Amino acid sequence: MVFRAKVFFFIVCVSLLAVSSWQAWKAREEHINDSETNIVNMARALAQHGDDTFKAADIILSGVVERLEADGVDDVQKPRLHKLLQKRVSEVSQLAGVFILDADGNPVVDSSDTPFSGNISDRNYFQYHRDHKDRGPYIGPLIKNPAGAWRLTVSRRFDYPDGRFRGVVLAAIDIDYFRNFYSTFKIGDNGLIILGLNDGTLLVRRPFFDKYVGYNLSKVPIFRDYVTKNHHGTHTAPSTVDGKDRINAYRHFNQFPLFVAIALSKEEVLDSWVEDTLHHTAAILLLIVILALLGNWLLRQIKLRLETEAELRVARDNLDQLNRHLQNLALEDGLTGLANRRHFDIALSQEFARALRNKDSVALIMLDVDWFKQYNDIYGHRAGDDCLRRIAALLRQVPQRTGDLVARYGGEELVVLLPQTTLESAALIAERIRADIVALDILHAASPLTIVTVSAGVAMIEPSQESGKSGEPEELVEEADRALYVAKARGRNCVARHDDVKIDSAFP
């Protein structure tokens, strides 16, 4: 029982740990999934924000292009255009300036108070519009102005009525606008936000480092294997910078050739999960310790109870043994070790009742040591006791079946109870006993035979319901006693049957 209890407590503790581990792992997966969902939503929001930012600038450019192509650019229009550009820049916070360039790359009008001077025909965006008839917006490469600020250009071409190239309208977007906006997001100490062109040019990076502006991402695995091949998605991989796992989400703009990518440190994402798991694990371990202490106490109590029960069983067995011993003493003759008179009376009643139920017979042999008083007078009572013990030892070998009983009936009288035995069989047994006692050759000077002998009376009864006699067990004893009297009258050292009493009328 103690072993089963130990196994039970072990299974409970292991089950608690298993369930706790499974819940912790499930919580970890849910935490990662939630983080992936969050950065996917963040990427969608940032892409939409970028689209809206560039779209706002492009709308301004579209309006300027329409006005230029309708009204042209002359000395009368320039002041009005200058005010218009200034107003538009003041209305859109991401714009650093709007510029109008002629077909040779010379500035015509801009939004600044100090007009820009110098030819920019060598710039990428100017050459693109000059060489392409595409009227849509063009996102040019990064430009660093003389003050050291990075700008991203959005430009459109405007033409003469006959379709010839007339110039470029340019909007400069301040990169700090994106950098400041991206800094408002909580992405952890090792998180990353990147804004880049679809050709792999890095525009904005958070955290910001000037050296990364304009960096080519074409060889970076996340860009090469995922961004270039999908419009949006997520991916978890070790960082090429520090080798730590990062959860990445990316998304291309819908209207402009740019993309935004977000990376979160998996370690930082799981920080709160680790803290919760540690607290939960500590609580589980504390619970297991409490269970172990309670279980240990319970096991001790169980063990103590089992030991007490074992001691009680031993005490009970000892008491039963003592009771049996006392019972045996109560039913045993102290001198010969045979059953005593009380034991005999109980056995006789039981066998009589059994014979009555089974319609069977019960036989009885009653023995008396011949001239035993004289034996005691000659040899003393101690010798008489030894004589009875030797005869009892011989008689103890007679019972061969369950129910057979040898008892000391009183003084030198002994009885042998034989259930399910006929009168003839009982007489033969009595004769064998008589002969065996003669063979003991116990000296008896007062006996005519000079040795100890016995007389035996044999009786048999078959109980019947019709008899109506309540004293039938005693009747068997009386019949055996009468037969014994006949044996003594015949000169002793012989066996008489109860039917001999009727034949031999000389003895009442």
Across the major sheet, the strand order is 2-1-5-4-3
Helix content class? 40-55%
CATH class of the largest domain: Alpha Beta
Tell me the Rg in angstroms.
63 Å
The DSSP helix count reads 13
| Mean residue pLDDT | 87
Task: Give the SSE string.
Answer: HHEEHEEEHEEHEEEHHHEHHEEHEHEH
β-strand amount: 15-25%
Structural class from helices and strands? Answer: alpha+beta
Structure summary, number of beta strands = 15
Q: In CATH terms, what is the architecture of the largest domain?
A: 2-Layer Sandwich
Coiled coil: 305-332
Transmembrane segments: 278-299
Protein name: diguanylate cyclase
Signal peptide: 1-26
Using brief descriptors, characterize the structure shown.
508 residues, alpha+beta, Beta-Lactamase, Alpha-Beta Plaits, 2 domains, five-stranded antiparallel beta sheet, 13 helices, 50% helix, 21% strand, rod-shaped, Rev_trsase/Diguanyl_cyclase, coiled coil, membrane, diguanylate cyclase
